[in-house]
Amino acid sequence: MAMTRARAHVLAVDFAACDGHGLCAELLPELIGSDEWGYPVLRDSTVPPDLLAHARRAVAACPVMALRLSRVPAPAPDQLPSRTSWRR
To answer: Model's pTM, two decimal places?
Structure first.
């Protein structure tokens, strides 16, 4: 029996396409804020399972299709950074 690694859903913004409508921040405030011009600021790009439906709705509602939702392989537990890996 082969084990498959879980896949994470991540958000990304195509800033070249984004017009700063701010709809994504209204629909998914848990993960997306907006700057003073209305452009999205991702608070966290990884979408937790309980917000996946909301993330899909925000992606679908983007008037210029600048918000993307992708699936990427989740890192193996031994590939996660340790608490001290960033310290010297």
So the answer is: 0.74
